[in-house]
Amino acid sequence: MLEKLLQYLENKKILILGFGVEGESSYNFFREHFPENKICIADKNENLLQEHTYLAKDNNLELNLGQKYLDDINNYDLILKTPGISFKDVDITGVEEKITNQLELLLEYVDIFTIGITGTKGKSTTSSLIYKVLKEQEKDVFLLGNIGDPIFNNIDMLEKDSIVVLEISSHALEYVNKSPNISILLNIYEEHLDHYKSLDKYIEAKFNIAKYQKEEDFLIYNYENELMNKYRYNYRNTDYAVSENEIFEARNKIYLKEKDIYCNEQKVMSIEEDLKLKGMHNFNNIMFVIAVCDILKLNFDKALDTIRNFDPLEHRMEFVATINRVDYYNDSIATIPEATINAVTAIKDVNTIILGGKDRGINLNRLISFLLESDVENIICLPKTGEYIYEKLKNTNKKCYYIQNLQEAVNKAKEVTKESKVCILSPAASSYGYFKNFEERGRLFKKYVIGY
Q1: Going by CATH, does the domain composed of 318-450 fall within 3.90.190.20?
Q2: Residues contacting residue 436 through CB under 8 Å, at least 6 positions apart
Q3: Which residues partner with 164 through β-bridges?
């Protein structure tokens, strides 16, 4: 399976740019297949050797560490970029053609069937659900990318009949020139504006998931999303439109009619079913999964059984515990206002919400209006975006609290939340600058709630 890929890489002077989880998997892959080749690792972390002592034993490894780690990127044939590294304020003139990543190398040089999922919200749930549907229909399927293992961790295990489900971030899509066989674009909202030079650049990166598809490939897209419609992408007749309203224009369509989900003219399921996945936004994710089932001609009844029994992922409207007759939910994944609105709408009886995080310039006014009109009584605001929300709501009929850290916020929630009601962490902001990632924020929230 890897002959074309290994032949392409064999005589390249390669730079691994960023040594996080994906960068380390790239290093391990190269060392397994090219033990004597010269490789360079460039990373801002000056303590990389102390943290990864085995690297010091590699005599064919160059290191470029510290603040100037990007200085010599012109000197390499191939720049294998970790998605999290931003070139927003970096002049990459003359090296754009050299930039690649694990995703593009898989799509370009490994003859395998791929399903790629991107979108501002819903990627992990949709990817995991598609993976489970395929697994329970006895397909040889791998879940890789953001939610699964790095691609190079599993690439040696792929067979010609394997299917690879890929959760793909906009960062991974930014410099690719290939697209998956089935591409799913769930939605686009304002997000990652600290990474891109403009919102248009962010939208453009998202649409790369379908830009390079072949005639026999499929795109499943959100028919109603405002930012996607402004981009005016040229959809094909073979593509699938997904909408929460009945669609007439598209040939292939998954849509909601009254209380039922339809795949073209076939009624598939009711949205009044009591699923483990809560909220209309999750039914929207399910509609994309149904489109995949139709394209691949899967057993619909079996797929629906999988959907009905699918448990929510950690940090996604995750029930934590009932403490003193208050239910606590962890929705740390909610890094934009739309996600927080969805969570409060889906989980009934929210009396207290904890929100706030890194300020990336995202408009918060719709969230503020929603909270004003909602039944949420207590709004606990954390730095930095919480400061803005607090100032807007402090003189209203809401009980607002501006608190400096998460542990104190949980203590305040325990003090003010009414019995038989719900407290939810749904920050509507990124965790960076305060926590390592949203997972750390969610796990700490659970720790403070339970008190262990």
Answers
A1: yes
A2: none
A3: 114, 142
DSSP lists the bridge partners of residue 269 as 261
Helices 438-450 and 406-416 meet at what angle, rounded to 10?
40
Q: Where in the chain is the domain with CATH 3.40.1190.10?
A: 104-308
Residue pLDDT, tens place only, 188-200: 988 655 666 788 8
What's the distance, Cα to Cα, between the start and end of the chain in Å? Answer: 48
Q: Superfamily for 3-100?
A: NAD(P)-binding Rossmann-like Domain (3.40.50.720)
Q: Where in the chain is the domain with CATH 3.90.190.20?
A: 318-450
Cα–Cα distance between 138 and 132 in angstroms, integer?
A: 10
Q: Within the chain, which residue ranges are assigned CATH 3.40.50.720? A: 3-100
Instruction: Give CA–CA dist 184/127, Å, rounded.
Output: 10
Buried b (16+ CB within 10 A) or exposed e, 364-389: beebbebbeeeebbbbbbbbebbeeb
In terms of CATH architecture, what is 104-308?
3-Layer(aba) Sandwich (3.40)
Q: How confident is the model over 369-403, as pLDDT tens digits?
A: 999 999 999 999 999 999 999 999 999 999 999 99
What's the confidence (pLDDT) of residue 306? 95
This prediction has a pTM of 0.85
* Buried residues in 278-289 as b, exposed as e (16+ CB within 10 A): bbebbbbbbbbb
Rounded Cα distance between 158 and 8, Å, is 18
Residues of the chain below pLDDT 50: none
